[in-house]
Write a structure and sequence with these properties.
Layout: E1 5-8, E2 14-17, E3 36-39, H1 54-57
Antiparallel strand pairs: 1-2, 2-3
Bound molecules: FE2/S2 (inorganic) cluster.
FE2/S2 (inorganic) cluster binds at residues 12-13, 40-42, 44-45, 51-55, 60.
Amino acid sequence: MDEATITPYRNGPYLVRGPFRLLDQDGNEIEVRRGTIALCRCGKSRTRPFCDGTHKLVEFAAESAPSADRSPATAGSNGRSS
Ligand code: FES
C-alpha cells in the first residue's frame, strides 16, 4: 500500500492505515508507533488524538458514510482548517 487510507468507523474512530505522518496543528510530529492507528472522533478519549475506546462508554453515534447533506469543510490555501 503506497497511500494512506482513512476510514470513519460506524459509532467509532477514524482508522488510519499508512504510510502517513501525524502532525499537530503547529506542524509538530506526533509519534506513532504503529502502521495503523485509530483517531478519536467522539472527542472523549483521554489519549487524544488517539481513540482509547471511550466512545463505547459515551455511546457515540455516527455513520460511516457521509451525511446526505454534507458540505465540505473550509480550509485555507495551505490545506489546513483554521
Ligand atoms: S472515538 Fe474512540 S474514544 Fe473517541
